[in-house]
Amino acid sequence: MDAVSLKCQKLDKIKRILISEEEIRAKTKEIGALISREYQGKPLLLVSILKGSFIFLADLCREISIPCEVGFMCAESYYNGTASSGSVNIVLDLKQDISEYNVIIVEDIVDSGRTLSEVVKMLAGRNPISLKVYTLMDKPERREVDFKPDYALFTVPDLFVVGYGLDCGEYYRNLPYVAEYDCS
Ligand code: IMP
Ligand code: MG
Predict the structure, then answer these.
(1) What residues contact residue 2 under an 8 Å CB cut-off, 6+ apart?
(2) Which ligand 1 atom is at minimum distance from the Cα of 108?
(3) Atom of ligand 1 at shortest distance to CA of 168?
(4) Helix 21-38 to helix 54-61 angle, to the nearest 10 degrees?
(5) From residue 129, how far is each of 73, 100, 119, 135, 181 by CA, in Å?
(6) 84 alpha carbon to ligand 2 midpoint, in Å?
(7) Residue 7 above 80 pLDDT?
(8) Cβ atoms 138, 154 nearer than 8 A
(9) Which tens digits make up the pLDDT trace of 141-184?
(10) Number of helices and strands (H, E) in the chain?
(11) How far apart are CA 23 and CA 183, in angstroms?
């Protein structure tokens, strides 16, 4: 990390690396291959939930060997810190008519479950051919609503994590790994 990055991202707030670059790469390859087999010959749309999933989407789509499209939604449920606001706002919606696609929602982390339960409800109402949720991480201990992703690459304990797309106050998204953040 260079001096400029160090000014904004206090690395003494990073307690430890929880998921390494290598672990993320290996799992993403595995899931990309699985999706490529499962959706062979089918119209596929990967829907990234911004902002947290942009890096996961970018890496995952490059491990998919069949044709696919990408789309973006922005759902905000967190204020600037580490506590949830409790409500979900869709601030950017998809451009595609999803009724002609098999849709995979690509998420960074499922925490309370509120964001995805709302997004899934909304997208299911638009009658996609199929709808699944793939998340990089799942934090099942924090669940507040009944929601289960179809696939979670990693299950993490009840910790606040940053890196690989996930932020704290908009910083740390560019760390190449997932780390435990010191909230104190
Ligand atoms: P929800 O509580 O499941 O609705 O999660 C909403 C969003 O909060 C996730 O998509 C993440 O972008 C963010 N989030 C949840 N847990 C963490 C975390 O530990 N670090 C950073 N962002 C998080
Ligand atoms: Mg997110």
Answers:
(1) none
(2) 10
(3) 21
(4) 60
(5) 19, 6, 16, 20, 39
(6) 12
(7) no
(8) yes
(9) 999 999 999 999 999 999 999 999 999 999 999 999 999 999 88
(10) 4, 9
(11) 25
CA 101/CA 6 separation, integer angstroms: 43
Judged by phi (left if over 0) then psi (alpha if -120 to 50, else beta), residue 164 lies in: left
Active-site residue (options: 108, 111, 138, 167)? 111
Does 111 participate in catalysis according to the annotation? yes
pLDDT, one tens digit per residue, over 27-54 is: 999 999 999 999 999 999 999 999 999 9
- Give the tokens for residue 156: 């993490």
Measured from the Cα of 49, ligand 1's closest atom is: 10
| DSSP string covering 18-59 | EE-HHHHHHHHHHHHHHHHHHTTTS-EEEEEEETTTHHHHHH
Q: Is 122 exposed, middle or buried (0-12, 13-18, 19+ CB in 10 A)?
A: middle
CA 76 to centroid of ligand 2, rounded, Å? 8
- Rounded CA gap, 28 and 92, in Å? 26
Residue to probe by mutation, ligand 1, list 108, 135, 147, 174, most atoms within 8 Å of CB: 108
The pocket around ligand 1, CB under 6 angstroms, is made up of 52, 77-78, 84, 107-115, 160-162, 166
Collapsed DSSP state (helix, strand, coil) of residue 80: coil
Q: Of 141, 146, 175, which is closest to residue 161 (Cα–Cα)?
A: 175
